[in-house]
Specification:
By secondary structure, the chain is mostly helical. The protein is built from 13 helices and no strands.
């Protein structure tokens, strides 16, 4: 374990972005804007179909529509939901490619962060393994929060108990997210050994990797990633809400557009920060030890162990 100095981290992060920021902004920001646009289109169709279904149900009550039409509308809604999930899933692959590109940059100064280098990283990704890793992380977090959700449901009439359960759930989600935060990176460094193996091993290794580093990682991410976004959004988002309150269209559009553009502009810093943290902490780790007892032997995978 080797904790990262916040001051040194900020200095190194700033130095690594110097001269590379603009080249990284266009592909990273462009993919994000495309993702948001496609998501909004899918949500628009989803909402429209949902409204149509509600109208059709009312018409069925008066004998003005058939159940077949409602079934077809439900099918359309499922298609819209599937497209929305697909867009989110594929954008997740690009997010991994962004982080891997920055990691390659930190490990080799000759590497550049650009649209072409990001695309090369994206093409080299094993999508089948990555989506299984994402599903495992989501499943484990869901299972950890499920007991508190059940307790909150059983105690729904007690408002204080529900609030306590929600707060505890949030703490659990943050804690597990910190434990799993290095899953994609440790997987990348051990990718050849994942052939035929369960992707949950990357999460196990990430938990071991982050032992003693969780609070340090949380502090670094809050200062370098979260806090600037919160401050920027509070200022210009507040301007937008002020425009709504005073019915000033100029303030509404200016506030929300600047808040969104600020988020887009900060994305390269976010991906660079996560990659830099792994780059600075990985040398003090023993990945073989982090993965100890996880991978199955070739004999077990091929069934040769059963014959013995």
């Amino acid at each position: 374990m080797k904790k990262v100095s916040l001051k040194d981290f900020i200095g190194e992060l700033r130095a690594s972005l110097k001269g590379q920021y603009t080249n990284a902004l266009w592909p990273i920001g462009g993919f994000f804007i495309i993702f948001i646009a496609l998501s909004l289109i899918c949500l628009y169709f989803f909402q429209g179909i949902a409204s149509s279904i509600m109208m059709s149900l009312m018409m069925v009550m008066y004998g003005m529509a058939s159940m077949g039409a409602i079934g077809f509308a439900f099918l359309e809604m499922l298609v819209a939901l599937g497209l929305l999930l697909a867009v989110r899933f594929f954008y997740g692959f690009f997010q991994v490619a962004f982080q891997y590109t920055y990691l390659a940059r930190y490990r080799d100064d000759s590497q550049k962060v650009s649209a072409s280098s990001i695309w090369q990283q994206y093409k080299r990704l094993n999508k089948n393994q990555l989506w299984r890793l994402a599903l495992y992380a989501g499943l484990f977090i869901f299972l950890w929060t499920l007991p508190l959700d059940i307790v909150g449901g059983l105690l729904a009439k007690y408002k204080v108990a529900v609030i306590i359960c929600r707060v505890l759930n949030l703490i659990v989600v943050i804690w597990k997210a910190l434990q799993y935060s290095q899953g994609y990176f440790v997987y990348k460094d051990k990718r050849p050994e994942f052939l035929g193996q369960s992707m949950r091993h990357a999460l196990t290794a990430s938990k071991r990797f982050m032992k003693g580093l969780k609070w340090n990682y949380l502090l670094v991410m809050i200062v370098t990633v979260v806090l600037p976004i919160v401050i920027w959004t509070a200022i210009f988002g507040g301007l937008g809400y002020y425009g709504i309150y005073t019915a000033t269209n100029f303030c509404i559009w200016l506030g929300f557009i600047l808040a969104f553009l600020g988020l887009v502009a900060w994305l390269p810093v976010c991906y660079a920060a996560t990659a830099l943290y792994y780059h600075k902490t990985a040398p003090a780790q023993d990945l073989d030890k982090d993965f100890e007892g996880t991978f199955k032997s070739v004999e077990v995978l091929t069934g040769q162990a059963d014959k013995k």
